[in-house]
């Protein structure tokens, strides 16, 4: 796999994964359906999706070549990027649709 394809794949997966907690009412995407899923569950799902996306990126990086160690700055910027990518889902869930 080419490096640019891997980058675009991780970005596409990150966009979808960051918005999934807001568009889905199931617990952890496969559990029982809960009509008013709380913000705590959404944050837990968002964290889980971020970890899975970072895992995919690390796997693709290892397959392409040598995996580089990252400092805390990389993870801080990655968390901010992941939260920013999830903003459309947040707007749709809490600001656009309203309550109920």
Automatic annotation (TrEMBL):
Does the record carry Transmembrane helix as a key word?
A: yes
Q: Does the keyword Transmembrane apply?
A: yes
The source's superkingdom equals Bacteria
Keywords assigned = Membrane, Transmembrane, Transmembrane helix
Query: Where are the membrane-spanning stretches?
Result: 6-23, 43-62, 74-95
> What protein name does the entry list?
DUF2818 family protein
Organism whose genome encodes this protein: Roseateles asaccharophilus
């Amino acid at each position: 796999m080419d490096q640019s394809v891997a980058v675009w794949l991780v970005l596409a997966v990150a966009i979808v994964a960051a918005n999934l907690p807001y568009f889905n009412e199931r617990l952890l995407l496969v559990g029982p359906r809960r009509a008013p899923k709380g913000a705590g569950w959404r944050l837990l799902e968002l964290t889980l999706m971020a970890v899975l996306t970072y895992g995919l990126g690390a796997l693709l990086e290892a397959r392409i070549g040598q995996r580089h160690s990252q400092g805390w700055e990389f993870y801080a910027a990655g968390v901010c990027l992941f939260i920013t990518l999830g903003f459309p889902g947040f707007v749709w869930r809490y600001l656009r649709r309203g309550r109920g």
